[in-house]
Amino acid sequence: MEMVHAHIRFNNLTEERDQLQSSYNNLTEERDQLKTSYNNLTEERDQLQSSYNNLTEERDQQKQNINEACTVLCGHYIKPCGHGWRYFSGSFYYISSVKTSWWNSRDDCKKKGADLVIINSKEEQNFLIGFRVIMWIGLTDSQTEGTWKWVDGTPLTTRYWDDGEPNSAVDNEDCAELKHFDPEKSWNDVPCKLQLFWICEKTST
Ligand code: 2F8
Ligand code: CA
To answer: What residues have a C-beta under 5 A from ligand 2, the ion?
Structure first.
């Protein structure tokens, strides 16, 4: 009986050893796979980092090219330099040195291959305020009273009207001016025949 028990115990231990051996082999294999994955990920990360660096360098170069193009444009075609086209975030901007109505302003921009400015971001709004000039922007409700549209036909979504504006206060105010230099409370509607400076925008793409 003792012998039989010893035999069974031996068999159990052998089985247990084989199972442990098998677990050990599996763990070793798993470890090797993880190591390979880790190496692949490291390589991939290095490649991405390298791509990122190249793209950053390319972007900086393009920015530099655009600024140089702007300087050339200023230096050769517009006088005095600084009152001509200015570059900001993908567009060139031109501020007039005389005043006229909204419609005449728009015609002038069109002759220049541009249009009155369309304000698409807070950054652009801040950029425009920086000029400290009261000027026409490319916003009107002359088509349908109360429905403000940009000159490219897009409806107005983000607004920077002054408090109480637009109010069409006197004499049908269908055109928008950038009047105040507070980023959030800046625009006013006035009659389109008013004589104001204006700003054209030409996208650089
Ligand atoms: O108080 C706001 C109001 O001020 C003027 O009217 C008195 C403006 N008109 C002109 O600048 C011509 C209004 O557009 C403006 O709403
Ligand atoms: Ca008004």
So the answer is: 165, 167, 169, 173, 188-189
